[in-house]
Write a structure and sequence with these properties.
Elements: H1 2-7, H2 9-30, H3 40-51, H4 65-69, E1 71-74, E2 97-100, E3 106-123, H5 132-135, E4 156-164, E5 170-176, E6 183-202, E7 209-218
Antiparallel strand pairs: 1-3, 2-7, 3-6, 3-7, 4-5, 4-6
Length: 219
């Protein structure tokens, strides 16, 4: 375990295994051999992996049609970055939007009442944090001064989704507490004129801002 952790082989095997498993599922569904997953099928495989929050350098995730057609706005800042298909910091680009906890929101508005099946959100789990030398987050020994492990302070812990009804009232259609995932899918099945995502707290604070990398809705 110590050797594999230090060389990062376990994470590499897990990511490759996920890609192989996804390709095998596609081959099973299509009734073909795994080696037949090529050409246009590779594009589909890449999008499936991106949708599952894998990172493929230089490949952008395709945004659902409903999200592209809807009007996107936020309480502050430019929310268009949430539809750029890149869901983590890359180079000098943050690719995220800061939203005030409790009072800030990001909203999709539709031209007419629309049935929304599900929502997908990607939060900030601090992927750019320091490695073992300063944070001991991948340990092969336990120094006496090692800090206690915990959830990333930047990761959203609590959030809710509100829907705009025909009478102009906003109602809560989903509430999530104790979230431990960077990428979260929320089943909705609601008809609404608009949907709002409101982050309430992160694992490190209840005031300030939370960072979002993606916020999608799909029919």
């Amino acid at each position: 375990h110590a050797a594999l952790s230090s060389t990062r082989v376990m994470a590499t095997c897990a990511i490759v295994g996920q890609a192989v498993g996804e390709a095998a599922a596609m081959a099973t569904a299509a009734g073909c051999l795994p080696r037949d997953i090529r050409g246009e099928a590779i594009d589909e495989l890449q999008q499936r992996l991106l949708d599952a929050d894998c990172y493929l350098p230089w490949v952008k995730r395709k945004i659902p049609e409903l999200s592209l057609k809807a009007s996107l706005r936020a309480s502050e800042g430019d929310p268009e970055v949430l539809r750029n298909g890149i869901e983590r910091p890359v180079g000098g680009d943050g690719n995220g939007l800061n939203v005030a906890l409790g009072s800030g929101w990001v909203e999709y508005a539709f031209e007419e009442p629309t049935v929304v099946v599900a929502a997908r959100v990607v939060f900030d789990s601090n992927l750019n944090r320091c490695g073992t030398s300063c944070h001991h987050n991948i340990r092969n020994n336990y120094p006496l001064d090692a800090p206690a492990d915990g959830m990333p302070e930047s990761l959203v812990k609590e959030f809710r989704i509100e829907a705009l009804q025909a009478d102009g009232a906003w109602v809560i259609v989903a509430e999530v507490d104790n979230n431990r995932r960077r990428m979260v899918r929320v089943e909705l099945g609601v008809e609404s004129c608009a949907l709002r995502l409101i982050p309430m707290a992160t694992w490190g604070r209840t005031e300030g801002t939370a960072r979002l990398f993606a916020w999608d809705v799909c029919a």
